Amino acid sequence: MVVSDLDGTLLDHETYSWQAAAPALALLKQRGIPLILATSKTAAEVRGLHRELGLGALPAIVENGAGLYRPGVADGAEPGYARIRAALEALPDRLRQRFRGFGDMTAAEIAETTGLPEQGAALARRREHSEPGLWMGGDGDLRAFLQALDRQGIHARHGGRFLTLSLGRTKADGLRQVAAELSPDTVIALGDAPNDVDLLQAADIGVIVRNDHAPAIAQLPEEAVGRIRRTKKIGPEGWNDAVIGLVQELQKAGD
Ligand SMILES: [Mg+2]
Fold it and tell me: Does the keyword tRNA-binding apply (predicted)?
């Protein structure tokens, strides 16, 4: 099974194209090796790409591991998001007013904040498992805000401009859930950024795809023993070389 991050990994950082990875994608399909997408995007955002890649009924890891996308299951069927929003509304006004989540914004505001086109922002707003938002208060109130949410079982993670609230699951939890369903012999994971490290470490083999536009992943202990490797080429080109190389290597080891 191959589990892959999207932006900067399978998709080119600039153009969002996966075309350079087409040979490796065809090889996976030919060998019947499942490809599991793992992204910060929502189910609504990932559906089009999932279909374009011909991934059929395979699930995808969405909202940074907070949930799974299952093709054919309607959006909004998950209780996690409602629980997070209810926890926010239960906060004292002083703290609640300092957090502006996607659920408090219009699609136009999300587009302005994220740089997404407005149509994309509308899909990013269709959340099921996690709530990104902007913190607009000081550090003292932030501590109180995080403590009050923690008491309600809500976890917060800082990433770029956003503070993202979830029930605490990561991409690695998503990987373990899908692996338990599909029982693969070997799990290969690919990612390009520090928020992919837990995913890479949860796999049998991790691949750090080079991305010169993102903060680098510091040297990991697994690299010394070859369990995590790095690509020379960036984005989908590096992805293509790594996946073809690993499929051949594992096949030889299995013969
Ligand atoms: Mg990425």
Answer: no
